[in-house]
Amino acid sequence: MIYKFLTLLGSLGMFLFGMKIMSESLQKLSGERLRAIMHAMTNNRFSGLTTGFTVTCMVQSSSASTVMIVSFVNAGLLTLGGAIGMILGANLGTTTTFWIVSLFGFKFSLAAISLPMIGVALPLIFMKKPKIRYTGEFLIGVSLLFLGLMYLQQAVPDVRSNPEMFEFIDGFTGHGFLSMIAFIIFGTLLTIMVQSSSVAGAITITMAFQGWIDYPSACAIILGENIGTTITANLAAISGSVNAKRAARAHLIFNLIGVVWAMALFVPLSNLTLWIIKPQIDPETMLLLQPRVELPILMATFHTIFNLINICLVIGFVHKLEALVCRLVKDAGDVNLLAPQKSPHMTYESALVPHTGELSLAEAERDVKRMGVLTRQLLLKFTDLFENGGENLAAEVLDAKRLEQESDILSFETTAYLLRCSSSGLSQTSINRITALLRVVAELEEICDCGYRLVMMAERKHRKERILPSETLGEVREFSNIILQFIEFYTSRLEGPVVATDMETAYQLEKFIDSFRKRLRKQSMSRIEASGENVKAEMLYIDILNNMESIGNHSINVLQALRHGD
Predict the structure, then answer these.
(1) 68 and 359 in contact (C-beta within 8 Å)?
(2) Using CA of residue 289, residue 294, residue 299, residue 305, what is the dihedral sign?
(3) How far apart are the first and last CA of the chain?
(4) pLDDT: which is higher, 303 or 213
(5) Are residues 308 and 392 in the same domain?
(6) Which contacts qualify for 350-355: CB closer than 8 Å, 24 or more apart?
(7) pLDDT of residue 482
(8) Is residue 185 domain-shared with residue 40, that is, in the same domain?
């Protein structure tokens, strides 16, 4: 008994591991395309539906795609309404796994397919070309998935050779609505336990194939699996923002709505599937004549029809669903801007939450761009404070301190997030991108530090009443405009490719900044030598020039890193 149980666990483990390898290799093969889809994300519910379906088909995991949707809402990349549209598409996309298992998992000798496939794939994973290597990994993942499914079929005993098992299952059938409720609960609990609707679906199809459950029971279990699959996104949203929690609740409510109407129309819905597939049925008993052959296809069709109808029913009321979850999940109230804020990223410490490095890069790039915006804000604050001063200098410095602290938090968390992404299965292109972004984050943090030091120097100038010659005001303004031009230049390149002509422009700007700083510093030293007075003001002025030149040096480093990472 223990041996059979361990064999069953091992079969599930092989199936799940094969799916993991297949999903990661698909992400590597389509990484650039996936990130392009993520960057082109729209808040239109219909295009969101298409995006959610496409991404789920690419990664073969609705759990992974819904977790990332919640994560994008949490990071501010996606509105709640757009996220609901993508969740609808993800639900439809997960039906492709059912079709793969139903069409290929029970109609062929899986060992006859899988072992030769591994033989073909093994040499490919040692090739230098990434695409060929990732294709080999994909084939091995598919092979392990099919082998796991084959062993799962063998581990689940056939009811005909285990009649006592049929008696146990039969006790839950034949009770009408109560039986349907029981099997829905079973499907929900099964999906929560294995944390994958795909694995739960494979187990359900195997049970039906081996005769454990009949067609109505299998349909009820599928409805339960649609409830259970929402737990992953809700787990991911626990540490997220209010909108992340709302997106996860929307996923749960959407699937619950579907299950409720499907329960009310269970007989017509299941008969619709029978009418479409037209299986062979015994006219007297109304039972399938070839259940082992036709049940898997019927289940995949039922799952697809259920999701299609549910999408058609809900997509016109996305705004109503959005309003409902906003009422259910209230705002946390006013936030103290000076207090440390919660991480903008989702936390993936739990083994229950899938890791999707390729998709996660879009979120990391968003925070890198936010750091670029902070560098501009700090420089503008310095320019305003240096020229205008004002009575309430403490408030201006406090606001600059808040921006600098935000940059420190973003730098630490984005670096940690990128390192977590790099631990997932990534393409070489993505690894290069992460390496570049790690350096960019470090350089942007240095620029923010320089910007904050400039603000403090401007505050000291007014507080200590350091009097500078009138011409220095125009010189600092001109120098600031040049630096600001450089900042806006690299900020515009944080998401796009950096080409050779961009680097030529950057080198010209950096060279001009160096020569401009040397000229102004030389003028300042000449004034000190000529008069011997106002030394402290001139030294403060020189410190300002040096910090502004440092920003130029870090700016060229940002563009060099981006150039090497493309």
Answers:
(1) yes
(2) negative
(3) 56
(4) 303
(5) no
(6) 350/235, 352/195, 352/232, 352/235, 353/67, 353/232, 353/235, 353/236, 354/61, 354/63, 354/64, 354/67, 354/232, 355/420, 355/423, 355/424
(7) 92
(8) yes
Judge if 315 and 415 occupy the same domain.
no
What is the model's pLDDT at position 419? 83
pTM of the model: 0.66
269 and 385 co-located in one domain: no
CATH number at residue 447: 1.20.58.220
For residue 202, count CB atoms less than 10 angstroms from its CB and return exposed for 0-12, middle for 13-18, buried for 19 or more: buried
The residue count for the chain: 566
Query: Mean pLDDT over residues 297-308, rounded?
Result: 90
Q: How many domains does the chain have?
A: 2
Residues 213-250: pLDDT tens digits? 778 888 899 999 888 888 877 877 776 678 888 888 98
- Shared-domain flag, residues 243 and 373: no
Give 240-278 pLDDT, tens digit per residue. Answer: 678 888 888 988 999 999 999 999 998 899 888 888 887
Would you state the pLDDT for residue 284? 52
The count of other CB atoms within 10 Å of the CB of residue 327 is 8
H helix or E strand, kind and range, residue 177: helix 177-194
341, part of any domain: no
Structure tokens at 267: 């007989």
Q: Tell me, yes or no, whether 316 and 404 share the same domain.
A: no
Q: Within 13 A of 78's CA, how many CA atoms are on the CB side? A: 34
Contact 255, 91 (CB under 8 A): yes
Token reading at 327 = 């009422």
- Within a domain: 44: yes
Tell me which residue has tokens 């030091």.
Answer: 453
In a domain, 351, yes or no: no
Tokens for 275, please give them. 């009418």
Residue from 191, 237, 238 nearest 94 by CA: 191
Q: What is the mean pLDDT of residues 14-24?
A: 77
Q: Does residue 369 share a domain with residue 294? A: no
The pLDDT of residue 353 is 45
Which residues lie below 8 Å from residue 147, measured CB to CB, with a gap of 6+? 14, 18, 110, 111, 114
Query: What is the percent of the chain with per-residue pLDDT over 70, rounded to a whole number?
Result: 79
Residue 326 pLDDT more than 80? Answer: yes
Whole domain around residue 143: which residue ranges?
A: 2-328
- pLDDT band for position 77 (cuts 50, 70, 90): low
